[in-house]
TrEMBL record:
Residues 1-20 form the signal peptide. Pfam families: DUF4842. Residues 185-392 form the DUF4842 domain. Keywords: Signal. InterPro entries: DUF4842, LruC_dom. The keyword Signal applies. PROSITE patterns: PROKAR_LIPOPROTEIN (PS51257). The keyword Phosphoprotein does not apply. This is LruC domain-containing protein. It comes from Xylanibacter ruminicola (Prevotella ruminicola).
Length: 442
């Protein structure tokens, strides 16, 4: 593409996007598509891509007779493996039957079902993750014992800050680790860890409970009594005035979405949420980039970058005791959680979701492109995913004039690379397990 055409394209796209928030009629999607394509880190993107690395599965169960209280699904044998993650938990009784759902990473081929008695003993059986929903767990040859310590199934959500403009594809502008657990018959607990803020501008963050009405929630509180917004100056809310105009709403843990869905208010300002210790900044709040640069590198400058401890909060969501909502909670998984960020751009608020929910428009109204290129948000089905350092791409893959493929980035192992997955959504689904260059990740 000639330089003059590139300049014209960029200028035209920015002009179109710049007024998109004011009038949908002037948004030119084709110009937007060309601009994104020019800056893309890959040659082509599979237009069927949903950028999913897991699938929502339903399984049928039959609890044997006895004094059983819970049914759990694990990623490995909880009696023998310290790496077993608790993927789902529901409350049951002896002889109960039904269906429960799990969000299963494609790389997991065997699951473990455990029924728990009043003494905390687990009776465990295994079954293939591909098992049909018409089949039932078989506990006849199960093993009984005490569980070793297991963690909750946790996914990592990685965001680019500059939607609708092109990203730099380091996916570290906001990094969240999210898990959920059924903690009572009418209650779930959502745990959120804010791991990194590599953004330059103010960003708000929320979680939509997909398909759950605001009116079905009885209460929300954090287990520690603190929030990510504690102590925040209300003047910092002005970029999101049409969302947080009511200061009571801004400091509430529960918000009502535009379509009446329940929304957890995580933070109004990611930098504030991460920089909770003002002593580290001599009592002044300044925006820096947290946990995105190696502190031993030549690029580390404390005026711009800092290393901070991650922050974790658990949100206890109690639902009203209507039978329909309670029965639905048996199928509540990470698939029902929609973490998203909100950024301010040219007079309007824009939400950034993973591809599955990119058109949700939960709290703001904005233009959503229908074309596919690298997304502004990714979900990786592991809680310890090592995200790129500032300025490093997840995976660059383009062909040079000779036809040879150039791959640069953190996850570029041939046959297991991010770029190959971008080109074919049905293959290379294990790319996140193949770190190519450890010096490029945090």
């Amino acid at each position: 593409m000639r330089k003059s055409l590139i300049i014209t394209l960029i200028a035209g796209a920015m002009a179109m996007l710049g007024v998109a928030s004011c009038s949908k009629n002037v948004y030119d999607e084709e110009t937007h598509r060309q601009l994104i394509k020019y800056f893309s880190a890959v040659d082509s993107v599979d237009q069927q891509h949903e950028w999913k690395l897991s699938e929502f599965k339903s399984y049928r169960y039959q609890v044997p007779s006895g004094n059983y209280q819970q049914l759990r699904i694990y990623s490995a044998n909880p009696l023998t493996s310290s790496k077993a993650e608790l993927m789902h938990q529901i409350f049951v009784s002896g002889n109960q039957s039904g269906v429960l759902s799990v969000d299963v990473p494609y790389q997991i081929t065997t699951l473990y079902a455990a029924i728990v008695d009043a003494s905390g003993n687990l009776t465990v059986t295994s079954f293939p993750a591909s098992q049909a929903s018409t089949e039932t767990f078989d506990f006849t040859s199960a093993t009984t014992g005490k569980a070793v310590t297991s963690a909750l199934q946790t996914y990592t959500y990685l965001f680019e800050e500059n939607y609708p403009e092109p990203g730099d594809y380091d996916y570290n502008d906001v990094v969240l680790r999210v898990s959920q657990q059924r903690t009572a018959v009418n209650q779930i607990t959502v745990t959120v860890t804010l791991s990194a803020v590599g953004a330059a501008k103010q960003i708000a963050g929320c979680i939509r409970l997909v398909g759950y009405s605001y009116d079905t929630v009885d209460s929300v509180y954090t287990t520690t009594g603190v929030t990510f917004n504690d102590g925040i100056n209300d003047q910092t809310l002005y970029p999101f005035g049409d969302i947080f105009s009511d200061k009571t709403v801004a400091h509430s843990l529960l918000m009502k979405g535009r379509n009446q869905e329940a929304v957890l208010n995580l933070f109004c300002d990611a930098h504030w949420a991460m920089a909770f210790n003002l002593d580290a900044d001599y009592g002044l709040f300044t925006r820096k980039k947290y946990n995105v640069i190696d502190p031993n590198s030549d690029s580390y400058n404390t005026d711009t970058y800092q290393t901070r401890a991650t922050r974790t909060l658990s949100y206890v969501v109690t639902f009203k005791n209507d039978d329909y909502t309670i029965s639905r909670l048996d199928n509540f998984t990470l698939n029902d959680i929609d973490p998203f960020i909100i950024t301010y751009y040219n007079g309007g608020n824009w939400e950034t979701h993973v591809e599955q929910f990119k058109s949700a428009k939960v709290l703001a109204n904005y233009s959503v492109a229908s074309f596919k290129d690298l997304p502004w948000a990714l979900m990786v089905p592991t809680g310890d995913f090592r995200y790129p350092l500032e300025g490093n791409e997840m995976g660059y893959r383009k062909r040079v004039e000779s036809g040879a493929v150039a791959m640069i980035g953190a996850y570029t192992t041939t046959g297991h690379s991010f770029g190959e997955w971008a080109e074919d959504h049905t293959r290379f689904l294990d790319w996140y397990l193949y770190l190519t260059n450890a010096s490029m990740v945090y």
